[in-house]
Amino acid sequence: MTKRFGQVEALTDLTVSVGEGVTGLVGANGAGKSTLIKILLGLLDPTDGTARVLGHDISSQAQEIRRLVGYMPEHDCLPPDVSASDFVVHMGRMSGLPATAARERAADILRHVGLDEERYRQMGGYSTGMKQRAKLAQALVHDPRLVFLDEPTNGLDPAARVDMLHLVQRIGRDFGIAVLVTSHLLGELERVSDHVIVLDGGHLLRSSATADFLKHTGGLLVEVIGGDAERDQLGEALARAGLTCHPRGQLVAVDPPPQGLAVHDVVRDTAADLGLALVRIQPDQAHLEDVFMSSSTTAGAAAPGGPA
Ligand SMILES: Nc1ncnc2c1ncn2[C@@H]1O[C@H](COP(=O)(O)OP(=O)(O)OP(=O)(O)O)[C@@H](O)[C@H]1O
Ligand SMILES: [Mg+2]
């Protein structure tokens, strides 16, 4: 699909599919993440193209889609003079739950998201963390099969971020609800997502299983006992042995070796020759941020799903 707002092209010829489990939708500010979610909910019309959500067409069956889907919007959208408890019950009723069921579901879900006694207070007085929890609760109250979570960690402190990510993971794994969650922080999505979709300026940059993103690079991290001097001594000797090395903190990062070089043996023998004590040799695993950085520089050429 393509979506234009006047001169601005928010999504360009995007073709992508989202499966079960937790899918991270990653991209910088303005990449088109929120626009995609709003189109999938039927809140915006695409300029061109179409999509299906749980088998329903976005243009003709938006109401059915909204019955099956929960939505946590990006921006503050909570009425300030209502308690979370009343609000979530109300949203449950709006989704068609009978009064008693809505009250029970609301109490359950507010407990799950970690809003305790505060749930009886007016939401206008909530902290950002409490507002995010209330927004999450209303997205889940009608027992959806799929939820769209638009930047659920926005505005949270590091501890609250970890809690929120843990909740997102539980929604996907324990409750069996498919999740599409957005963030501009790649590092936090790599921990909770089964699949990652990267948008860049409205273009699909990549869509692959998180494990494929993180396939190890073939490089190594090496640690020896001692300080910077010992680290550099090892690094220089490894360089003389034909390896490309960089200091990384207290470690020596060894780039993937040329074909045929038994890199573990070279590291062991080099350390032994220098009389250095090896603490560890471990695979240097890529992180999503590395992948994103390297593929961003070749945005036009990167094939979706291609190798990092
Ligand atoms: N209603 C609108 N009218 C005009 N332009 C819009 C509108 N909504 C979005 N855009 C533009 O479309 C592009 C994508 O915006 P979108 O909000 O989808 O990005 P995003 O990835 O969610 O960014 P963020 O991380 O900042 O939330 C941006 O250039 C934005 O300015
Ligand atoms: Mg957004």
From TrEMBL:
It comes from the Bacteria. Gene3D superfamilies: P-loop containing nucleotide triphosphate hydrolases. Keywords: ATP-binding, Nucleotide-binding, Transport. Residues 1-226 form the ABC transporter domain. Transmembrane segments: none annotated. One of its GO terms (molecular function) is ATP binding. PANTHER family: ABC TRANSPORTER, ATP-BINDING PROTEIN. Belongs to the ABC transporter superfamily. This is ABC transporter ATP-binding protein. The lineage of its organism: Bacteria, Bacillati, Actinomycetota, Actinomycetes, Propionibacteriales.
